Amino acid sequence: MDLVNGKVRVATVWLGGCSGCHMSLLDMDERLLELASRIELCASPLTDCKDFPEVDVTLVEGAVANEEHLEHIRQVREKSKVLICLGDCAVTGNVTAMRNAYGVSECLDLAYRENSAVVIGVPEGNLVVPKLLDRVMPVHEVVRVDFFLQGCPPDADAIYSLLAQLLDGNPPVSDGRRFG
Ligand code: SF4
């Protein structure tokens, strides 16, 4: 894959995570200006586009926790040449997967009934929210992943290093497989 011709089309995605990994992207500070001259940011949590665009590189924060995430990550994989797990929730499930030790209904009861100041019950009908999956999954359990950037959140230097290597058309290789 040639990532050098023209600007590289990049997207970021926010699944089941706390947004801390996106904050780590901002921690690249002035290096963001250098990257901005080489990439076109096609989608991010701010754009909230319903149809994910065709892109070269997508960074995914968060685990796959509900049916909306499941559908979204499959579409993202189809439309991304390179998919990067950004942070431990995407890589292993991490904090998001802590609910796997409990049942979905127990978690919903805790959130919407036991710890709610105004008890409205679990949303349904017009108050619909995406249905939680029985088990939170790391991204690689659902789709193929090209690179893994570990950390909670991953270090800004590591994010920059991987992106710079991809933009230079020189992705890291280890034992015949690619790792971030
Ligand atoms: Fe938040 Fe850490 Fe998960 Fe990133 S890896 S979304 S910082 S909990």
Explain what this protein looks like in three dimensions:
The chain is α/β, with parallel strands linked by helices. 30% of the residues lie in helices and 21% in strands. It contains six helices and seven strands, in the order βααβββαβααββα. It starts with 7 loop residues before the first strand and ends in a 13-residue tail after the last helix. The structure holds iron/sulfur cluster. The site of iron/sulfur cluster has 13 residues, from helix 1 and helix 4.
Biggest pleated sheet? 5 strands, parallel
Coarse shape: elongated
Bound molecules: iron/sulfur cluster
> Pairing-aware structural class of the strands and helices?
alpha/beta
Low-confidence stretches: none
Can you give the helix content as a percent range?
Answer: 25-40%
β-strand percent reads 15-25%
Series of H and E elements: EHHEEEHEHHEEH
Distance between the termini: 17 Å
Strand order of the largest sheet: 2-1-3-5-7
Number of helices: 6
Average pLDDT score: 90
Number of separate strands = 7
Radius of gyration: 18 Å
